[in-house]
Amino acid sequence: MVREILEETGAEIENAELLCVIENIFIYEGEQGHELVFVYDAMFRDRSIYAKSEIPVYESGIDLRTTASWRSPEELKASGTRLVPEELAELLNRTG
């Protein structure tokens, strides 16, 4: 996970702690999918990242350049954005 974050954002993290593993069985574009989602709590080593509204993200396996942004559970709900897997949304609501 530490390596993945570094590869995709160029930023180092620290104090990574595995919170839970969620098994997610879903339908996407008519096909059933299955994944295991490892949920971690961690901090960016460079704390200035938290002040940025967006973080550039690069996924080399599919040559995708995009951005990540900070959103609270309340903002997601108000915007109608669905967070998946649903157990992740439940975890965020319980832990804040």
What is the number of domains?
Answer: 1
Instruction: Provide mean pLDDT, rounded.
Output: 91
Percent range for β-strand residues = 35-45%
The strand order across the widest sheet is: 1-2
Radius of gyration based on Cα positions: 15 Å
Distance between the termini: 22 Å
Low-confidence stretches: none
- What is the tally of helical segments? 3
Q: Structural class of the helix and strand makeup?
A: alpha+beta
Order of helices and strands: HEEEEHH
Which outline best applies?
globular
Number of strands: 4
Helix content: 25-40%
Describe the main β-sheet briefly: 2 strands, antiparallel
Structure description:
It is a single chain. The protein is α+β, with helices and mostly antiparallel strands and 96 residues long. It has one domain. Helix content is 26%, strand content 44%. The strands form 2 sheets. A two-stranded antiparallel sheet has the order 1-2. A two-stranded antiparallel ribbon has the order 3-4. The chain starts with a helix and ends with a helix.
SSE inventory with pairings:
Blueprint: H1 2-9, E1 13-28, E2 31-44, E3 54-59, E4 64-69, H2 73-79, H3 86-95
Antiparallel strand pairs: 1-2, 3-4
Quick overview:
This protein is an alpha+beta fold and 96 residues long.
List keywords for this structure.
3 helices, 44% strand, single chain, 96 residues
